[in-house]
Design a protein that fits this description.
The complex is a heterotrimer of chains A (about 280), B (about 450) and C (about 375). Chain A is of the alpha/beta class. Helices cover about 30% and strands about 25% of the residues of chain A. Chain A starts with about 25 loop residues before the first strand and ends in a 5-residue tail after the last helix. Chain B is mostly helical and about 450 residues long. A two-stranded antiparallel ribbon of chain B has the order 1-4. In chain B, strands 2-3 form a two-stranded antiparallel sheet. In chain B, strands 5-6 form a two-stranded antiparallel ribbon. In chain B, strand 2 and strand 3 form a beta hairpin. The chains are: A alpha/beta (about 280), B mainly alpha (about 450), C mainly alpha (about 375).
Amino acid sequence: MDARESSGNAPVQKATRDMYLPPERRKIADGGTAHISAREFSIYYGEFEAVKRVSADILSKYVTAIIGPSGCGKSTFLRAINRMNDLIPSCHTTGALLFDGQDIYGKFTDEVLLRKKVGMVFQKPNPFPKSIFDNIAYGPRLHGVNDKKKLMEIVERSLKKAAIWDEVCDRLDKNALGLSGGQQQRLCVARTLAVEPEVLLLDEPTSALDPKATAKIEDLIQELRGSYTIMIVTHNMQQASRVSDSTMFFYEGVLVEQASTAQLFTNPKDPMTEDYITGRFS
Amino acid sequence: MNIGTRKILDRSFTAVGIGSIIVMAVALMIVVVPIITNGIGAVFFTGTVEHRKMLFSEFKRGDSENLSSEVASSERYRAKVYQMLTGFEAELETMAPEQKAEYQAKYTQVRAALQALLGPLPGDPEPMLTRFKYGQTRWEKAEEKLHDLLYETRWDNSNPEVMAKEYFVSRAIGFQGTSLVKLFPYVKNNLESMLLPEFTCYWGFITDSSVDSHFFGGIWPEIQGTFFLAVGAMLFAFPLGVVAAVYFTEYARPGFLNSMLRSANSTLAGVPSIVFGMFGLAFFINTMKVSESKSVIAGALTLAIMILPTIIRAAEEAILAVPKTYREASLSLGSTKWNTIATVILPAALPGILTGGVISLGRAAGETAPIIFTAAVSVGSAIGLADVFSSPTPALSWNIYNLASEHEAAAQIRHVQYGMVLALVSIVLMLNLSAIVLRARISKKLKG
Amino acid sequence: MAGESEGECNRTNAFVVSARKRAMQNVAKRAGEGMLFAVASFVAVIVLFIFYFVARDAVPFFQIRGFSEFFTSSNWYPADDPAQFGALAIIYGSLMVTLGSALIAVPMGVAAAICLSDILPFSVRQYAKPVIEMLAAIPSVAFGFFALVILAPLLQNNGGPLLMWAWWILVSPFMLLAVIVISDLLTTKITEPKRRQQLHLFFMIFLGLLSVFLLFKVGTVLYGIQILTGTNALNVSIILSFMALPTIVSVSEDALQAVGRDIREGSYALGATRAETILKTVLPAGSSGILAAVILGIMRALGETMVVWMASGNSSQIPEPWFNYLQAIRTLTATIAGDMGEADQVTGSARFHVLFAMGLLLLVISFISNLVSERIVVRQRKILSGQ
């Protein structure tokens, strides 16, 4: 596990747009691979630099938590990975953000294909006002699956992966808005999984849920670990320490520290990190 | 100021506010209630045998055996009236010339009043207009005509300072000493037997064409015309409006061009309706020549322009009300922007968009000014769907104006006018009510 | 876990596409957006067309006849030979009914808007709003029919008593209020409580008797009025005010809602009553929005056709005296509607073009007032958002 601390020093050359890094160049120390890499990556809202020259590697198939006080840019960074920030007209970026060695903000990047590979679950559960089945089938249908039987398979598989199948299998045709908050959030996870992404971005997925539903989501993350690269933004440091392998600490747009979760929470290198995790500011 | 006075002022301030809302509600009642109560009279009324005769010969409706027995029984009573008339005519011949001339003049009036009451008398030539072929078809009208028969109306002009006042003189007195004097009490006492009034439920008012410029028959051509115009307008305006709203909400970037477009939208919403009519005449008919002269298509296009801003605004509001999270969720699943709009945003906004559409449909149905020069004719039969590109049509809104203000016998066909107003108002209010209900449903749904 | 990383990324599965495909995608996106823009700009095109086509047929009139006759003479004899096209009385008639309806609709509409936004509980508001919407939905021709067939005979036959009752019902509560307030104001300076009470009572009685006398005196004068024709400016003003009310109410309610809670709470916290809070803080803050509402409502009255055509009497003269609302008048809209049928036969005549000149006048007025009200709304939004 210790090897992952070295991620910041990965042998990556100067970032340019439309670059491609072959997998062997992305190897990090103990043989883990960087799935997502940021190099001198900044995000601006108009003039305001919300994320400042971040360089980091996110390891494939591990759970990475992003913590930091409100407004530190952690959500902005997360949303940059599947280009949800495009919805904000004044938002632009500099530096490079690589996914599988390909530049996410490259000139020839098809953001639709990108988002298919990078799924996202939001703060508030946001199922469509459709049936449970149609919610899950929405993504596959978009990408050309129309066969009813195949869709059914995908829906079942996704719901099972998201550990909600048992609760909804007898009411797939009911409106998804009728589910409880926790169920809705797991449904949203299932909906994302149905597209078969490689990366799962979770933007404070439990902030709108009660403790019981939160526990279920955390269990779910544990089950999905190893199959997907998972990034989770959270306010809750206990949650970060419970679910993640590696943790990034952001403060005022700067990546202060990135380390294995065990190390960051027990023996932080940066005094600012220590102040934050001991609760001296938030 | 005294604290007590301040409190009184506060209370009365509240009272003024609530009072004005009550005044508005009362105004709504004052306008709507007489329209409803009188309008219902166009369908439900006490009809006479003349009405049934008219229905049978004009619309081939009713039971002929039943009718002929009714006619026979009424003729038995009418025969005596006719006898009295012939008796008096014979008596006239025996009179001195001056006396004869005097009675002849009065007798002509009596005959005219009887014609109005019972229909053509024996010996009269076949009338040209359908309205004179039958006596009074409605009992309350028959009672008015009976009054006309019994009393002569005169005007008191003795005082030039004030308006002339009307007063009534019994006609029977004028015929004192002749055989005709018996006619008046006879008609008065036997009118029911001559006209056989009974409660009538005339649904044909909605489905029949009019006979002799709305003297008899129904308002189907107007209803159909209104339907064609309003639906035609929607066919043009609804898709355009929704697409424009999608552009404004999803694509437009703030800037000069965008604010110009928005200004144009509100300008269009503020254009007086009569100016739309002029524009329709000058552009669609005189310039584009969509039709030779007035036509349904020209009217529908004009109405479409008029309701376009309303539809755009309603659709914009509905789209903006769709939670942002739906958009994010769909995009994060790898959906294109266009796909997101088509499969998530528009379906979620649809009830709101429809609400706006339904209200605009009501507005298109109710407007008169834009169709005066472009689509409406006063009298005419229902047109076929194929004729919408070439022929004008009667429409409820226009014909209400026309019957109330320009019809040669406007006061005689008030029941038709009320019936038309009720039809129009109920169409429009139904549409609005359904929009209100629809909206209440949406807000409930969104709250979960 | 780490061992799998070799195979997971092959470039066939990439999201970076070829330059050509990306360019195609861009073109498609631009084209789609362009089409949407074309549809959205359709509205602007229509507005330009309306101005162009109405002006195109209006200009010949001014070329033939000049401006002065149209705006200064009230001799409207378009069918005579030689024809006269003095529209002053018609313009005046339009202004008169617009002003009349504004006098009724503005106080009522603003009061109702205040009531809806600040006074009524939410549950009642839910029922009041549909009433206003229904009032807005009733077609103008139905209002016109009501004015012609029900209101006009009522005014003509029982005009005097009707006016008297309206005067009593509307004015007496305000008189009573004025008596209370004035007698209170007159005695505020007096500090000695007993003397003050006595004087207060005296003023109440004195002013009360005065106002009762006034009420009855004016009432009798009104009772004696004979209305010669029921289709007159008063009738039209009343009906038009009902048609303008929904607009005024809903737009001013929006303006009042936009004034935030904090302003209200600040005022209440200083011990103001609800009326004082609304009159002294909420209304001034929302005043420009209310002004915009009034302009929009007035425009509705000015542009209305059917009611004035049916119930104004269509007599092209300035009433004697000029403020006499009980006489028949004629408006721009009704003239256009009524004369087009005859003028249409001779398209191209001055008689045809003069109607378009009137239409252009209406169009320009409505355009300017729209711009003004829009500016006002934008400015208020800026002020309220603190820019």
